[in-house]
Amino acid sequence: MSTFIAAFVVLLLFFVLMSIGYFIKHKAVEGSCGGLGALGIEKACDCDDPCDKRKRRMAAEEERREKLAKDRII
């Protein structure tokens, strides 16, 4: 039981330290490998012919961008 408590305390300490770092720097935690961009993949779904769900999502995003551009004051 003491091992579990010690592991929990150490994990909690790391979370507290990461939170303090976030509040001080105002920068989110991010990976160092570059993610999918490092592999030359522009998006998570890099298919030539996306599925229907993806097509609907892309159409909704485009519609939202057009609406924002139309309603933009500046």
Which terms would index this structure?
mainly alpha; 2 helices; 59% helix; (Na+)-NQR maturation NqrM; NqrM
Q: What do these coordinates show?
A:
With 74 residues, the protein is an all-alpha fold. It is built from two helices and no strands. The protein has helices at residues 2-25, 52-71. The longest helix has 24 residues, at 2-25. It starts with a helix and ends with a helix. The mean pLDDT is 82.
Task: Explain the layout of strands and helices.
Layout: H1 2-25, H2 52-71
Protein name: (Na+)-NQR maturation NqrM
InterPro entries: NqrM (IPR007495)
Organism: Shewanella salipaludis
Q: What is the number of strand segments?
A: 0
Mean pLDDT: 82
Percent of residues in helices: 55-70%
Runs in which pLDDT lies below 50 for 5 or more consecutive residues are none
Q: In terms of structural class, how would the helical and strand content be classed?
A: mainly alpha
Q: How many DSSP helices?
A: 2
Radius of gyration, in Å, reads: 21 Å
Main sheet properties:
none
Distance between the ends: 61 Å
What is the helix/strand order?
Answer: HH
Given the C-alpha coordinates, what overall shape results? elongated
Strand residue percentage: under 5%
